[in-house]
Design a protein that fits this description.
The strands form 3 sheets. A 7-stranded mixed sheet has the order 1-9-8-5-4-2-3, sandwiched between helices. The chain has a 3-stranded antiparallel sheet with strand order 7-6-11, with no helix packed on it. The protein is α/β, with parallel strands linked by helices. It has 2 domains: about 140 residues, Aspartate Aminotransferase, domain 1, CATH 3.90.1150; about 240 residues, Aspartate Aminotransferase, domain 2 (3-Layer(aba) Sandwich). It is globular, with a radius of gyration of 24 Å. The structure holds pyridoxal-5'-phosphate. The site of pyridoxal-5'-phosphate has 14 residues, from helix 4 and helix 5.
Length: about 450
Amino acid sequence: MTGSIHADFSPLLAVRGGEPAVKLRQPSWPCPTDSEIEAVRQAMIQGKTDWAYLCAAGKGGPGQALEERFQRELGVPFAVGTCGAGAALHIACMCVLEMGDEAITSPYSWGQTAACILQAGGVPIFADIDPNTLTLDPASVEARVTPRTRAIVAVHMAGVPADMDAINAVAARHGLTVIEDCAQAQGSLYKGRPVGTFGNFGCFSLGSGKHLAAGDAGMLVTSDRTLFEKALLVGMHPARMGKDIEDPQRRAEIDNFIYTYRINTLSAAWALAEMDRLAEMNTWRRRNLAQLFELLAGVPGIRPPHLPDWADPVWHMVNWTFVAEEVPGISRAQYVKALRAEGVPISTGYVGSPLHLRPTMRQKRYHFGRGYPWAADPASHFIEYAPGDCPVAERRCSELDMTTQTGWCYCDVSAIMKEFAAAFRKVTDHLDQVRGLEV
Ligand SMILES: *Cc1c(COP(=O)(O)O)cnc(C)c1O
């Protein structure tokens, strides 16, 4: 009899056919406000009689206004609006890499952090990550420096800043350029200062899932006039080059052998209006995630990121750690499956497979297997990408990572966080129902 009472009152997990614990819906993201929609409308109206206004040649339209806003907020003298962070990263690499040069980057990222090196004819070399921040481990970076190394591409993964002082110190010792991939980290602070201002270049994304979502757009920032002028030569319209390039030798190079990497001015108008609420949205992102971390303290099987004091991230996603010992007999995939069924947005690892172990890298098949860039220089023929190169990153991907996307956390979602915590408790109180789940 007690058995049947137990069955009646013990909640059935959603993955076994019960009611999901999470009832509230997450806000959609991106979510343009009326004033942002109006800003785009006004830009188009202006463009009816002022052709240059909507062309990103740098003649006073929304593209230039957005660049100036980035300069002001980051305290940097130069900004170049681009069509995405990927374009900004490629431009940066084009400015510093020559064919066959090596650039050191993280295997724990979105592929474009490494693709920008390949696109510029460089050879990506992967350093391992720090087990807490999941960003480049400066000691591992230094161990991989060779006479052919020219640059470090550091990513502020998930919004967590990389250890920029230590990375810059490695760069200074070996004469390297530092490129920051800030696509997931707009507003994140390292030692109180915004990321993107530590390296020689900062690359931001205004893509639709990012902190400042504005369709597809990006921004390249630098404090170095030479790098700024080179960047214009790579990817901007000659009219823009003519306006902003001062160096006589570089002025002589102005031509239209370019990539069309300029920013879409309507995206710029949207982003410019959206910047008025970025600080507020970032405050909510910080606050909401801090609340969730607190609510999940002590829940078996999961740990929030454990960060050094100097890291003040604006979360783009959270990469949780799965703690197998605390949930015996349950795999990471089963744990995630049970939570997803309850309505918790969690998956097994955003990165999935570390970049150095993807087929493109292992088989050196970039550009449809033409052998480029490795074939371009005999010294690159011997570079291999293999398991064991970056053990910390590899273990994160194969055993530990669980990811929650947080783009929707830009407003007060406290009630949703409480439902998530209830879902976690429901699942971890009934692990018997999770055991044996098919995944
Ligand atoms: C999104 C992203 C990019 C690319 O940004 P786009 O604006 O889409 O070109 C590059 N790096 C990282 C880490 C990203 O998350």
